[in-house]
Amino acid sequence: MVIVNKRVCPTCGQSINDREITLFRGMIDALFVVWKWCKEQGVYEFSRKQVKHLFKGENQTARFGDLIYFGGLVYRLEFGIHINSKGYFGINIERCNQFFAGLYKIPTSVWKNPLNGEITLSDYKMLGQIKKLRDFLNENMEYIVKYRENYMADHGQLF
Hints:
alpha+beta; globular
C-alpha cells in the first residue's frame, strides 16, 4: 500500500486529514448482484450474511458497506441506539434501476474527515465511466491511499 499526504496527530497518532474512499467497478459488480437478488426476492432490506454468497471474494464482501457513501443506492439500517446495525443494509431499488439504466450519476470519490465524520462527495459519473480496481494501483500493484488537508487540522482545532 502506498500512502500519499497522510498527517497524524503527534499525541495519539490518529490521522488528522481527510481520507479518500473511491468507488471501483468491483463494488458496482457487487451492487448489481445484490440489486438483482433483491428484485428476485421481493426485498429491499437485508443483512450482509444474507447476500454474502453473491460476492466474488472477501474484497467485495468487505467493501460492500462503503456503498452507503455513493449516491444513495445503498443505506445502512438504523435500528436504534441499543441494537447494532452493523451489517444490515437497504437498497434503493428505484435509484439502482436508474443507475443501471445509465440515467443516474453517482459520486465516485468520497473524502471522509476523521475528526468530525464529515463526508464530501465529488467526481460524479455514470455507470460506464467507473474505473476498475487496477486503475488505482501503482506499477508494483500496490493500492494508493490518498489523503488531503482539512480545515480543522490546518487551524489547530484538533483539541
